[in-house]
């Protein structure tokens, strides 16, 4: 391994389930190894992919901090556990006696770029849910509050804030695409949105490309699981508000939550894990959903929804509450 050439990436996992790593391993066309090699990305260490373990891994971390190995991109997966009392000792990096909190701060100080991989490392995510006994947070955000473990003013060695590749888990291509842009020098702060997510995927909505869009247009809604209709009105779907391209950049070439019959829970956003109600439920006031589509004024939504429902074709009205197509589209006679 020539650690001074190529684009060096170090990947560590903090307080999380490892789902983003498992998602990354599903990268395809080409696969992960070929993608990294083709982009000139040198993986210094990853817990699932590297041979080094124990003292060998620790020596890599020490060499990076000492400046003996250059670190272009530090990837942190999972929330950082700050407790108890800001000591970080709820998570000791095995074999070092030091909190992961301290390792992350030392490594981020020398990293060219620092990336929060997944919503946990970005904002806190699932690990920060409930009353958060471990005081978990993201690298530069504690949910919607700026700061996190690195502080609001943090800038990497290449003068960038933390890049939040948010998602629970992330799409593998969101990670590889971001890393490849960084290797080419084709990424700047203007390529991040207000939550510091790469705009390559965050400038889209999950609603784009949803296979249920025809039902949405006519407000033909599903009323229970397995039905074909739009899941916004009754089933808690947030696809019209969630920033991601899940239905146009499919998972494993063919899937997404909505295509699998599950409502979007907006997992790329801070605080998604605590919506204040059950995930598969749409809270309403006077029959109007509280969470309206992005950029949609309430008065317009009410007016358009009323018109749409009045114009709903019989085909969509019946199919929306069925688990298969019971009324096919009619052929139009010329």
UniProtKB/TrEMBL annotation:
Residues binding [4Fe-4S] cluster 1, per UniProt: 17, 20, 168
Domain of life: Bacteria
Binding residue positions for [3Fe-4S] cluster: 246, 264, 267
Compartment annotation: Cell envelope
Assembly mode: Heterodimer of a large and a small subunit.
Protein name as catalogued: hydrogenase (acceptor)
One term of GO molecular function: electron transfer activity
A Pfam entry, by short name: NiFe_hyd_SSU_C
One Gene Ontology CC term in the entry: cell envelope
Cofactor: [3Fe-4S] cluster; [4Fe-4S] cluster
